[in-house]
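STRUCTURE REQUEST FORM
Protein name: Actin-interacting protein 1
Source organism: Patiria miniata
Requested output: structure tokens
Priority: standard
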Amino acid sequence: MPFSYEKKSVFAAHPRTERARAFNLGGDPKGKTFLYTNDTNVYIRDIENPAICDIYCEHSAQTSVAKYAPSGFYIASGDVTGKVRIWDTTQKEHILKYEHQPISGKVNDIAWGPESKRLAVCGEGRDKFAAAILWDSGTTIGKLNGSANHCNAIDYKPTRPYRIVTASEDMTTSYYEGIPFKFKTQLREHSNFVNSTKFSPDGNFFASGGSDSQVFLYTGKDGEKVAELLDGKKAHEGGVYSVFFSPDSKRLLTASADKTVKMWDVETQQLITTFKMGTVVEDQQLSLLWQGDYMLSTSLAGYISYLDKNNPDTPLRVIKGHNKNISMMALSSDTKSIYSAGLDNKILCWDAESGECDVAGGKAHTNMVTAMSTNGNIVASAGMDDVVRFLDTETKTFTDDVIGLDKQPQCITTKGDLMVVGTVEDICLFKNKAKVCSEAVRYTAKAAHLSPAGNFLAVGGSDSKLHIFDVSNDTLKEIDQLTTQQPVCAVQFSCDGTYLACGADKNVLLWKVQDFEPCNHLWSSHRARVTSLSWNPENKRIATGGVDGSIGIWDVDNLKEGNLIMGAHPKSVITAVAWRDSTTVVSTGHDKCIKQWTV
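Status: completed
Returned output:
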């Protein structure tokens, strides 16, 4: 029987960042949304409610920049191969309008002409580092050949006479007149890489910021130097990675690796405000956007801060999220919170309804988290640092309890005072966090789950078997082996303990727990290996996630049919699925997103 579903919410991936590398936020000309890139996706988020997110995922290579046309009807996005795709913003399908390849390497920045008919593109091409083209035909409109090295940024003067300026790693800012565009002059004030350049909205000025910690101001029409900010001194104590003018062109924001953002008066070149963004390396500021009343700054961690000019040391809000793959996920016992672990070793704590997020406090793992399990108000996590840590869900802080393991953990399951950790060579049983026994095995324990009553343990093995243990006497006594034909990577008892389900390669198998007899069925709609499995609270449906990026929904009362949410996480491995309630599924993937589905 067909089922219906809809995407309930997306807690989006955050911008992909690199230390000492500038990147760009884009803004909707109407001031409603902002956008950025990560992997092959472009993320468009509501500036007032960032939990509202649209994702464009049609690039075949890693995206690097995306910018709205001034008309607001189109977005141009570039990737690491040099391709620029121009696509529609008014339709849900985001229909592709044109695709061009103006340079032969990574696109670092894109700027639209004010009429939304021309594009300026720069990056890391082999034969040239910047180009100006017509948006429809891709025809070149002049030569932007002034740079001798990679260009980090480019901007197009929004008023006549039209000009283009580029910021290059040859330590120069090149200035072009047009149309057609031709080289006019090279500005050599910087003594290190020039990372960012931007025209003011009225076209009267443009600014440049570089790794030499300096910011220069020039006239927009002629490219004449006006001033060096903090004349005689450096504008920042670290490299400057982004500059951005206010909508009225009277103010200038600069972002730096010194973990500050500064606001300057354009007319007097005086410093107005310093926003102190933190004290650790991840607080370095790499990108700016000033849109209407909103001033946004993005850190090396990928966190987006809404600056408050009245309280510069405390942002109005900070949007946090993952900008590296999500390896594992667990729900709180009341399912009101989501806990997700990234490849950066952080565990983030999410409000499942609002999407508000914070990083778990205390001493976290020092390597990737491979498994998580919730037990009351504690989330137990095992990592490749060969330890188990415990997160208190009430304080959102790791406790001081740490359990060291002899082998690398692959899975973890908890129930009551019991905890089982499966590793590459053994299975360890703990009671009240003390090890009571372990058993060496000749397979890797890829998945494990304790039954609701805490008397049975099911372990999915690399040996294509489901191993059943009796743990009722605080021992590991193997009582059955269920053959699956393929390695088992996901296993879970139903909430009432009646059934046991597992994912073996592309298949989902089901047994009755009473005698561990198989149900007469085989669900096999996934196109690749099943990675995660979860029962809904009513014990009627199973959700699965797979390497194919799809979510499977399987009905126990209909053992012959299943349904897939195809491309739930496009071009991405799904790492975990879980039911929040009888109709809501949460999923996480290598696309760094957390998604909720109503099914």
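Reviewer notes: The longest strand covers residues 397-404. The mean pLDDT is 96.
Form closed.
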